[in-house]
Amino acid sequence: LDSDVPTNQIAFAHVLPDNYTNYLSRGTRLPALALNQFHKATVCDIMDISWRKPNGRIYTQIHWPIDITRKEFYTGLEGGDSGYPLFVFLSGKTVLLTVWSSAYFGTSVTAFKEDINEMMTALGGGYQLTEINLSEFRALDE
User: Fold this and answer.
1) How far is residue 109's CA from residue 111's CA, in Å, rounded to a whole number?
2) How far apart are CA 81 and CA 20, in angstroms?
3) What is the dihedral of CA 59, 65, 67, 73, to 10 degrees?
4) Core vs surface per residue 48-76: b (16+ CB within 10 A) or e
5) Torsion angle of alpha carbons 133, 29, 35, 114, nearest 10°?
6) Are 69 and 31 in contact (CB under 8 A)?
7) What is the rounded CA–CA span in Å between residue 29 and residue 92?
8) What is the pTM assigned to this prediction?
9) Residue 46, class by beta-carbon neighbours within 10 Å (0-12 exposed, 13-18 middle, 19+ buried)?
10) What's 102's DSSP letter?
11) What is the pLDDT of residues 48-97, one digit of tens each?
């Protein structure tokens, strides 16, 4: 791209704030939209937004849906889908959770926002990730 994307035509994806667990817990069984290498969408369920593996890496993990309606829109992922995104939709906004690195998980964007913002600063252009405001939702402990 040689110029900014027109905001009246394309909206950017948000990311979750650090306090997302106050509203979504781990995100277990939230419906999500996954894209694949063929630019097709599939519906899946979140298992954990920031799942720490024993090796210390932090991933967003999904699972096939258990809801009958969601199952109709689930096709799974396969080799070659790495790098394609996973989104949830909250308050009409698209929220990026990961890009695939395996069939059922990808590195958590939520867990690495600071690192991503630092890299974007180093690259120039003045861009940063934008967090979605979840304060309109009721906190889980209320």
Assistant:
1) 6
2) 27
3) 120
4) bbbbeeeeeebbbbbeebeeeebeeebee
5) 40
6) no
7) 19
8) 0.89
9) buried
10) S
11) 999 888 888 899 999 999 999 999 999 888 888 888 999 999 999 999 99
